[in-house]
Outer membrane protein TolC (Flavobacterium haoranii), 417 residues
Amino acid sequence: MMKYKIVIISFFLFQIVTAQEQLTLEKCYQLVETNYPLAKQNSILANQLEVQTEAFNKDKLPKISLNAQATYQSEVTQVPFSLPNATIEPLNKDQYRATLDVNQLIYNGNVIEAQTNLKTAQTKTQQQQVKVTLYQLKSVVNQYYFGILLLQKKQELVTAKKVLLLEKIKEIQAAVKFDAVLPSSEQVIEAEIIKINQQSNDIRYEKLKLFNYLNKLTDSNFNEDTVLVVEKSIISQEGSRPEYKLFELQNQQIDANKSLISKTNYPKVNAFAQGGYGNPALNMLNNSFETFYMAGIRLNWTLFDWNKTKKEKEALEISKQLIETEKETFELNINSQLQEVNFEIERIEQQIISDAEIIQLREKIVLSAEAQMKNGVITSSDYLNEVTQLFEAKINEQTHKVQLELAKANYQIIKGN
């Protein structure tokens, strides 16, 4: 009879649940990846790369500059001899010049491309770091999600217990009318129902707190009526953590940096043109204002830099070694965590098997206690104690089942699925 009632209660609760909003763990992950404030950095970094690339490419365009100067000097160039029938006027000590200069890059060893490649590598590394941070938030989501799920399971069982006792109190009230049981039997059940209401209230506020944390993390508005649904987890041995991609991109960034350093000592060729107006102009012996111009090609090549480039590359190679040690340490920690979670999963699975056996025995005990109470062999307090132990066993079972799903979800995250 009792099993039939519990089935009815469970079916009633299921009908309520299906009418409410449902939330999956995967949806929470997706909401964090899109709504968490840090997620906005990926598009910001992409925009920054685009702007910086445009800035690098501006170096390929001609550079135009206007220059002007006025000077006064203590000595000027003089001709140390005189010419017959000719007068050479000395230069003015105040001199003036204004020029318009144009410089056009012809070749610089592809430094601009190397700068662009380095900036691209840096951006990809930063974007991957954002992904790593967001991925690590999945563990926090798991704590909130399964915490709420456990509270919902407890609430279902507490409600089922209350419904059962409300039915039982009706039978006791009828028995009290016929003096079959003492009025105190009814009061014992009523006190337990009040206690259940207190438990429900505590569960509700605890759920509200966890929902508040989850909403902040996902930038959502889930409420206490939202039902969390968990599909059975399948442990997969495949997976790849985003940290591995980060290590790879960090190495690529170092390679791009080495390439840029190599190109800084390449020859640089520029074409230039200059037009101006001044006194004196190009003819230093002409002491008057006049226009002038010149054009040409300029070469600059650093032939020896005291092995500065070599040392900078060696320093970058050392950075690669540091990245490799970080990767090895990460792998060691991951394997240790996976082993620990595996032990936890096996332990909880054994507990669940024991929980089923305990519940089966407790249900038989409650059925027996119910019959004994009706026959006056035991009091309602004795019966209530057996009912409470049955539902505590059920709560323990649900707790272990939720803990198992949490452990499996954590395993998937550690593995990289």
